[in-house]
Amino acid sequence: MNLTISVLVACLLATVSAKISPGPCPPKPETKPDFDATQYIGDWFQVQGIPNFFTPDNSSCIRASYGDLGDGTISVHNVLTYPNGLFGEICGSAYAPNPEVPGELLVLFPFSFPGQYLVLDTDYENWSAVYACVDLLDEFKFEYTWLLTRDPEPSDEVISTALDVFVSKGISLEDFETYQQGPQCVYEDPEVPSCIDT
Questions:
Q1: What's the rounded Cα separation, in Å, for the pair 142 and 112?
Q2: What number of other Cβ atoms are within 10 A of residue 175's Cβ?
Q3: What SS3 class is residue 78?
Q4: What is the residue extent of each domain of the chain?
Q5: Residue 198: predicted pLDDT
Q6: Residue 50 · residue 177 · CB < 8 Å
Q7: Burial 89-124 (b: 16+ CB within 10 A, else e)
Q8: What is the enclosing helix (H) or strand (E) of 5?
Q9: Which of 28, 105, 137, 169 is buried deepest, with most CB atoms within 10 A?
Q10: How far apart are CA 23 and CA 74, in angstroms?
């Protein structure tokens, strides 16, 4: 590995807490072949997943709200409470670049490259299992997972069903963290101007 790659990796490791491992990403897992974005819109709460730079360890109250923009794209509004107690949010959009593979989405946020959002499976009403992997010069990979549920405090059965999807796709649960949800959560902070209004 040359010096440039080593320095780049060191910088990323200093700021990113996603799962990083050597080698390129594995073959892209199969996504839900009949994924229907219309049924998917609404609020989803992240109850488990691999921590990363935008949802670091000990974050809580993570919610993703999806809407229909009417032009084939989906609005994305993510909120969370950081470990230091501060409220955070970001707005963006998502779309399926290949209509024949509707479960393979790209998410666009300001000042960033498009990110993968692979819907492995969902029942739309209770749970969704989502995965992404980013190659770093074919030397390292960052893996991301989102176990999302409609209910911020889902049953063990709902969580188990979604976890089984990750396992069936060969995705390790070793680095999954549980994110706190519940009545103490603030999903809209009146003191913080919302990006959905800008």
A1: 16
A2: 15
A3: strand
A4: 38-189
A5: 57
A6: yes
A7: bebbbbbbeeeebbbbbbbebeeeeebbbbbbbbee
A8: helix 3-15
A9: 105
A10: 32
Secondary structure letter of residue 12 according to DSSP: H
The vertex-113 CA angle with 110 and 119, nearest 5°, equals 100
- Determine the pLDDT at residue 12: 36
Q: Are 71 and 195 in contact (CB under 8 A)?
A: no
Contact 59, 80 (CB under 8 A): yes
Residue 37, Ramachandran bin (φ over 0: left; ψ between -120 and 50: alpha; else beta): alpha
Is residue 81's pLDDT more than 80? yes
**DSSP 3-state helix, strand, coil percentages of the chain (rounded to 5)?**
15, 35, 45
The three-class DSSP label of residue 51 is coil
Tell me: pLDDT of 14 over 90. Answer: no
Is residue 163 classed as helix, strand or coil in its secondary structure?
Answer: helix
Phi-psi region of 31 (alpha: psi -120 to 50; beta: other; left: phi over 0): beta
pTM, rounded to two decimals: 0.87
Report the amino acid identity of residue 86: L
Name which residue leads in pLDDT, 39 or 24. 39
Mean pLDDT of 141-158: 96
Written as six digits, the tokens of 182 are: 């519940």
Q: Does residue 41 contact residue 68 with C-beta atoms inside 8 Å?
A: yes
Asked if the 38-189 domain carries CATH number 2.40.128.20, the reply is: yes
